[in-house]
Amino acid sequence: MKRLFSGLLAMIMILILLPVGSYANGDQLYIEPKLIMVSPNTYTVEPGDDLRLDIELYNSGEYEAEKIIATLSSDRTGLVLIDGKSYQEEDYIESGDKETLKFDVEVNKNAPDGTYDMGLEVVYYDYYLNKEFTLDKTIHIRVIQEDTTPDLVLSRTDVMPSTTVNPGDPVVIGFELLNKGEGPARNITIGLPELSEDSLVLANGLSIQRLPDIAGGRKGYVYFELQASNTIRPGNHEMMVQLTYRDGDNNPVESQEYFSFQASKNDERASKLVIENLSYPTGALGQNREVKVTFDVRNQGQSPARDIEIKATSQDESGLVPKSLGITKTEEIQPGEVKSYQFLFVTTRTGTTRNYPIEITVDYTDELVHPATRETLTHIIGVFLNAPDEDANQSTPKLIIDRYSFSPTLVSAGEEFQMNLSFYNTNNTKTVRNIKIYLTADEETESGSVFTPVNSSNTFYIDSIPPKGKIEKTISMYTVPDAKAKTYTLTANFEYEDNLANPYTAVELIGVPVVQQSKLDTGEVGFFPESYVGQSTPISVEFYNTGKVPLYNMMVKLEGDFQTENGQYYVGNFNSGSSDYFEGYVIPSEPGQLQGEVVFTFEDSTGQMKEERKPFSLNVMDMEPLPDFPMEPPMEEPGPGGSLARFIIPGLAILAAVGGFVFYRRRKAKKFDEDLEIDE
After folding, report:
1. CA-wise closest residue to 483 among 582, 564, 402, 414
2. pTM over 0.85
3. Alpha-carbon span 294 to 340, nearest angstrom
4. Which of 21, 350, 356, 368 has the fewest CB atoms within 10 Å, measured from its CB?
5. Distance between CA 192 and CA 240 in Å, rounded?
């Protein structure tokens, strides 16, 4: 029993005497010395003055530093020099002790204002480890001419709640003022003279505010409650701050300072109307038949669209005329709201066999983007009229496009597509011959024509089409990458002859709906591969819009068999070229392999919902239980092991207490070293 008790006491003494960062040398434990400078490393002096530098060294190690030699070097400009000995010697500094080195410095009387650097090198030795250590520090000598006048400057600008100002949002701008002079600045006023309806306006309070006196070297703070204009120009804005104050002699002083801020693009929160669920007759219709055109208009933007006009207009009333009012007005469509519209037409009794186009136009204003101009959305559809029993003796044969389609249905910018055309000879008796057809596009981009044929020209030839006959052609086309998402018009120009070689010309319009492909790129999902039951683990990922169109109503969320914190982030409209960051927290409920996904959902430029998923996997472990030490040993009857238990249980409690003490001691030593490093 005595042997066991002696062993426990030995363990306790080892734990108590064990220092942080010790070295093992046989049966001995050892810690190296560590000298740090705890005195200031910046001194202020006037030109021509002498300065005594008291450099205090502290040994934060666990063993003494010996044979100490400290050398101070003059500034390289030659304007700040060592006066006397450039080095100091000390025999040793015990662990936890301090020593002060003294150097004399002379400043040239012609030295201009500025900071001059002197190099300090401290070399010391550890005989036990037979090792030399070096401490290198820079001593900054600030030379400042004596001045008693105030000098008030703008030292910091805070734009809140975000560094980027959104149109129409409230914004608080705070200014920190620093008096760089020696004398006090009194009767201080701060004004914003450049507030305007096109940029920032006052939301609350006054545009000129006052501050109490600011002594030399001191700071003051003031803020303004403002409102960003709905039409604020996106990009960087610079505004003036007018400062007025009085110096120590009560003389007025005026100065101008400037600050800048970023304004976000208005279209990040703009409205965006799209046409959806368009329905109209796609087959051939006879004369005097009703044509019903229905569609929905949805606002997939973030602001209301106002003063909306929806039109459906026949482009050729010889064969198709309106039966209902051709224009409908709506006061507004809120973000996410859908409204339905219907227009009626009728084919005429005198209409000939051909395709009759209908132009659908949605015209609206957005007060956030262009309150003085209107946004326009256009879509063209075609209704085919098949007029029976045409005059067999008519002299003019007609060639039309009775049907066209695209593969894929929606043409993507920067990609090829197939255009399928059906050419129809409407005449009952006459054949059309020597048919030349060439395609032209009315609009161009910076890259040139919106559409270009692939492996062919935009002109092709058909030998002949018999009466009431059809010829189908498939043309491969390419859409330039910078084409905007809209419906473009291709013009098909016909040149042909009848049986008697009489020449004819005709024109047909083809509406080509072009969309820009949405493109979302993501970085690698960041997470700790191991986590613990009941403990939150961060999951993070960066994402980028690398496409040419915004992603609408974007949402990022965590999905899996777990609880979450901040597990969902609504991005809203995510503009082209933008980047963002998501971080949520997963809380596992049981150990094992846990699978999860970061899910991105958004609507593309056509209103279609898209989804991207990024999987991740966590190894979840149980939390290790903490040891439970009783405060008092249980009472036992005396017996063979009773007295032993009385010593073992208190011994374990003592070990736990000693362990806690050592942990506390290490933490305290570490914190002390960090604090000293910060002071340096």
Report:
1. 414
2. no
3. 7
4. 350
5. 6
